[in-house]
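[audit] Reproducing an earlier prediction to check determinism. Same input, same settings, fresh worker. If the tokens differ from the archived copy the diff job will pick it up downstream; this log only records the rerun itself.
[audit] input (254 residues):
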Amino acid sequence: MLKKAACIAALALMAACSSESVSDQTGNDSATQEQPAAQSSGVEDYEVNETTISGEQRNADFVNKLEDEQLAGDLRDGGYVIYVRHAKTDKDWGDQVSPDLNLTDCSTQRQLSADGKADAKMIGEGIKTAGIPVGEVISSEYCRAFNTAELAFGKHTKNQDLNFLPCVECTPEDYKKYADRVSPLLSETPEQGTNTFLVGHDDPFQGVTMSVEPPNGIYPEPMGVAYVVKPMGDGKFELIAKILPSQWQELAEL
């Protein structure tokens, strides 16, 4: 069975969580669910609001729809879209609203930390070792996204539809724009025998998942987490599984 070492940490309090199967990715027990919203983990101070806290809880509570062995086998057969949030950065800050932001200049953006670079390589090595076929790799235009793609897969194509909108506390209209942009990518069937990998960010994924995890979608946490999606065409898709960076390697054992 795949094991995870993910812990739900409060903004002011760290809580230990036990290892469990990838096919049981819930946010754990009732004690976790009873924590007040202000103590949610993962969401930085600048973006703490009802929508992100709700989305983070959905992420914590998400339960994989396939058992581990079937998940590994199905991924080897291809046909899925995998949305990967970029790997760890040195600091989480809203560079999408910075007046100095320049998508061609990495120095104006959040960049991958040493741990993030190691995680990106670990993701790629795990996928290769597990025998999971990689087709298209599509990333946002932000450096931390396409650098994650390059370190993991050695290739990428940039697509601005995976970029941030210029908002930190996004409005319902902003989230709808995210859904309109990203749903075609999540719903498009990959080339036969391959899987498509999208490397992007938290807010676009939360926006696009509001229709399948109402009302506030899933805030993907931690950085480097991946969601396996079954594309259904015409903007429709189904969330199948959540995979942490270290768990790709474990898939090779199944």
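[audit] rerun output stored. Observation attached for the diff report: The CA atoms of residues 82 and 112 lie 20 Å apart.
[audit] end
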